[in-house]
Amino acid sequence: MSVPLKKYELVTDKAREWKGRQWVGDFLIVLRNDTEDLQLMFDVQGSDEDFIDIPRIDFGENSVVIEGAKEFQKVFLKHSALANGIIRVIIGRKDSTYTLRPADTLGKTPVIYNVTLTAADTEYPQTLPLGTKKFTLKERDGGAFRLAFTKGLVAAPTEPYFTILENQAYWEDDLLLSNKTLYFAGAGQQTIEIIAWT
Predict the structure, then answer these.
(1) pLDDT tens, 62-74?
(2) Residue 92 and residue 69: Cα distance in Å, rounded?
(3) In this predicted model, what pLDDT tens digit does every residue of 3-17 receive, in sequence order?
C-alpha cells in the first residue's frame, strides 16, 4: 500500500534560526524557495558542516530533491526574513507514489483576493472562481486565523474548522472547484491573502 506524499508551505516574513519541523520521511522535495539563504538539516542540529544549502527556486522551475541517509523524523530550517516569501516542500517515503498531471489540469490564470477581517471572531466569506485548480492562502502579517468550508463554524468557533497557525500558509492543488466558498475568522484587523489558479 502506497503512502501519500505530505505537502507543507511556510511563509518567510520572519527569520528562522534552525527552527525544527516534525516532518517525517525518506526524502524531501523543495518545490519553491523565495529566500536566498535557506539551509536544511535532518534530525539533529549538528555543526555548520552538516547543513544543506538550498538555492532560490521559483515554483514551476527545477525542484530540489534530497534523500536522507535514513528515515528522518525532523527537519531544521534556517533563513533570513523575507517579506511575502514562501517555502513549499513535499515530504515522501520510499513507498510514496506521485502521478504527473497532464498540462490541461494545471492552473494557468491567477486571481488574487484580499479578505479583510475587521472584527474579531466574526465570519467573513470568499468564493473562489469557477474552475479553481489550486489555491494558496495566508494572513498578511503572519497572524493565526480559522478556516472552514461550511458557513457558521469559524466565528464562535464550532467544530469542524481548521486553524492556520502563525507564520504559516495553507495550499491545495489537484482541484476542480465549482463555486466553493471559504469562511474565515480571526483576531480582527487582519487580511487574508488568497491566490487562486484557474
Answers:
(1) 678 888 778 899 9
(2) 14
(3) 677 888 899 999 998
Q: Domains plus CATH for the chain?
A: 6-92 (2.60.120), 103-197 (2.60.120.770)
Write the secondary structure of the chain as one string of H (helix), E (strand) and C (coil). Answer: CCECCEEEEEECCCCEEEEEECCCEEEEEEEEECCCCEEEEECCCCCCCCCEEECCECCCCCCEEEEEEEEECCEEEEECCCCCCEEEEEEECCCECCCCCCHHHCCCCEEEEEEEECCCCCCEEEECCCCECEEEEEECCCCCEEEECCCCCCCCCCCCCEEECCCEEEEECCCCECCCEEEEEECCCEEEEEEEEC
CA nearest 60: which of 83, 37, 35, 88?
88
Q: In whole angstroms, what is the distance from residue 92 CA to residue 67 CA? A: 10
Give the HSE-up count for residue 97: Cα atoms under 13 Å, Cβ half-sphere.
5
Check: CB of residue 58 under 8 Å from CB of residue 32: yes
Gap between the Cα atoms of 13 and 15, Å rounded: 7
**Beta bridge partners of residue 191, listed in sequence order:** 116
